[in-house]
Design brief:
By secondary structure, the protein is of the alpha+beta class. The chain has 11 helices and 11 strands. Helix 2 packs antiparallel against helix 3, helix 4 runs antiparallel to helix 5 and helix 4 crosses helix 6. The longest helix is centred in the C-terminal third of the chain and has 19 residues. The relative contact order is 0.12.
Amino acid sequence: MEEGPLCSLFSSLVLPLEAVMEPRWKGKNAETKALADPKSKIVERLQSSLCKSDAQGFLLDSVVLLPVGHEQIEVIELLNRSFFGRPRPNSYEHKQWYELDFEEAFYLCSSLECLKIMDENKCLVVNNDLWKYMKSKSKAFPESYIAYSHLRNKDWVVKDGSKYGADFVAYRHHPSLVHSEFAVILEFDKSHRLRVLSDVKCAVRICASVAKTLLVLRINTKDCDFVSPPELDLYKVEEMIPEQHLHIRKRLISTQEIPTLPTKDISTVSVPASSISRIQPKKAPLSLSVAESFILSEVQFLGERDQDGRERRVQKLKLLLILCQK
C-alpha cells in the first residue's frame, strides 16, 4: 500500500490473528471437537501419510490433480479434514481424484515436501521449474503463494475468497466447524487494489455485511529483483486490519459496550415498550461472540452515524441478550 492517507486507515497487527475476533462456531459441540483435534496435528499426519504413499500429482493446465486409491482411506480422510484440494465428482480406475490449486500443490510439494509433481510425460518436475510454470500461468502467483503459506504456517485453513471480493478467506479450523473470520486481500508493488479511499470503504463494508474482518497482507517485494523458491524467506508479510476495527475491539474487550447484565431482571435496560414486542427470543442462547460480531458490523463506520442511533442499537442488543438467556 502506498504511503499516504490510506495508511492511516490500517494498523499493523502485533497480536496473533486468533486474538482479533472470537470464533463463530457451527453448533454447540464444534469448539470441543476442534480443541480435541488440533489442525496442526492433522496436517502432520497428512504429511506423513503422503510421504509413505509416495504421492504424485499431475500438472493439468492451471491445476494439479492428485489421485488417491480408494483403499487409502486414511489419506482421503486427512485430505478432507485438513482441507487440501477438492474431490472431483467423477472417479474411475478405483481412484479418487483431488483437484489442487497452485498454492496448495506447491505448499505440499515445497514446504511440506510430501508431494511429487509430474508433467504430462510422467516426468518429475523440480521445484524451480514448477515455480516458473505456475508463474507463467499466473503473474501474481509468487505473492499469492507467499500469502497462502504465511497463513497456512500459522495453522489457518485458506480458501478462495472471490465470493467475497477478496483473494482468500481464512478459517481457524475446518469450515464444517467454524465460520471464516478473515477476508484476505493482498497488497504488493504491482497490485492495484485499495489504492483509493472508496475501494477501502467498499471492502470494509462488504466484510462487515458477512461478519468478516478485512485482513490486508502487505508483501514487501522490494528487497529482491525477482521471486523464486530459494528467496521466499526474504519476503516479509505485514498483517494489517482497519484501524476502526481495532478501536471497536478494544472497547469490546474493556466491556464498555457489553457490561455484565442480570439474567432475569430487564428493568435496568431503558428500551421503549414498542421495541420489546418486536424482539423475539431465540431458543438457543446467544453467544457473546455473535454479539461482538453484531456490534462490529453495526458500528463499523461510527463516524457516519449519529450517537443517538448508535445507542439505540446497543440497547436493543442488550435486551436481546437478556431475553435469550431467560
